[in-house]
Amino acid sequence: MKKGTIFEGIVEKVNYPNKGIVRTEDGEITVKNVLPGQRVRCSVTKSRKDHAEGRLLEVLEKSPKETGKVCKNFGICGGCTYLSLDYETQKAIKEGQVKGALDRALSEQATPYVWEGVQESPNKYEYRNKMEFTFGNEYKDGPLTLGMHKRGSFFDVVPVEDCMIVDGDYRLILKTVREYFSEKGISFFHRMTHEGYLRHLLVRKSKAENTILVALVTTTQISDDAELLDGFVKELLLLETENNRPAINGTEGSAFVNELDTEKLSGKFAGILHILNDSPADVVKSDRTDILYGKDGFGEKLLGLDFQVSTFSFFQTNSAGAEVIYKTVQRYVESAGILRQGSGDEKKPVVFDLYSGTGTITQLMAPVAKKVIGVEIVEEAVEAAKRSAKANHLENCEFIAGDVLKVLDEVEEHPDFIILDPPREGIHPKALPKILDYGVQNLVYVSCKLSSLVNDLKVFRERGYEVVRATAVDQFPWTANVETVALLSKLSEAKHHY
What we know:
Layout: E1 6-15, E2 19-24, E3 27-32, E4 39-47, E5 52-61, H1 87-105, E6 114-119, E7 130-137, E8 144-149, E9 157-159, H2 168-184, E10 198-206, E11 211-218, H3 226-237, H4 254-259, E12 268-276, E13 288-294, E14 297-302, E15 305-310, H5 319-335, E16 350-354, H6 360-365, E17 371-376, H7 379-391, E18 397-401, H8 404-407, E19 417-420, H9 431-436, E20 442-447, H10 450-462, E21 465-473, E22 483-490, H11 491-494
Parallel strand pairs: 3-5, 6-21, 11-12, 16-17, 16-19, 17-18, 19-20
Antiparallel strand pairs: 1-2, 1-4, 2-3, 4-5, 7-8, 7-10, 8-9, 10-11, 12-13, 14-15, 20-22, 21-22
Helix pairs in contact: 1-10, 2-3
């Protein structure tokens, strides 16, 4: 196949992550953003002797499986991939992707692993508890918008005020903030010129408290922005119900409130923040954070424990789905027999929770462990974890802020069990040997990127570990993402855990 040649074909299947296999008269082409059963037109972008990649030009015929409901931005924004399918079909696609990848990675494993299928998210829509929106425009020199990046575009931003994976509070906040800054004529930060004020809007929500944390990210290119920010806070607070709305500078803006009686938030604001970021890179980071209203975090509850969540702390973006993941982790730990050593503290295990985020797993393990050590590189998350552990009256949790690669050289304790929940790129290649050198009999690996897990499994297998059981959790319905949880045991022990 020559580069630039245009072909038509049928999508036979979609491999992880979102790589469709299109069958044409001249062979197979790998094309992103397609669905099984679609007839598509694509252009070859890369061609090798045994492999070709292409770019989707047009969907000629829908798949017979496209029977689900869609929003107006489906296929335009870079979010949902499988929204036009029914839920069982997208679930089957993800199961095929995860199990297929594990089967290939473990084809030479001595003992077959137990595959437990895909566990569903309790909520299929409006499940996200965190969103990062971007200021920009839909097209060059177009009006200000606020939303998600257009699929395949570095610059264009699509308004997503009808998004179905967040609840109505997100949609209302998005609309209100966009309209406010549009009326004020405030510019967004241009990536090429590095000029402009508005960058991002972060929104987080607690399901337990029904409270909302909003963070406006801007540059410092407007030196006197106090009045602008004061108006921003007022516009947001006017969205709260009248009984809960505090007076602002001696006024409640009653005329404006009456106009919005049909558009009220279901939750309350825990805090409204202003984050200043002058980095040229398109990343959400803080050079300085100012609290404009309320506080800089809120509480969340998972499996009966209280957690503190702040602006940048890692916390699973689907609270109900997170409980499914953590129950699975608990079950896998129990199935490994590590908790049956005895009831006395001297016989309870020492557990390492590496890449611990806000310490969710660390604290869930605390009641059955002698000690749990959580290691996390984000200091803000570690401080939140410490506050949570104190609130939960857990005295056997230790949280260390730092890179796993370096921290393991400093920790004196030796673990009996290790739980891994690394970032998308997986475990650092230099940290992995240090983890394996502990020689623990059992580990649980939680992965948000299947390909990273598969790569790490090669090293685990070289060091004598086998996957005993595995499952997928549909933590992100309608997107191409899926969580995988696996229990690994040393080869001599693996046969005992069925």
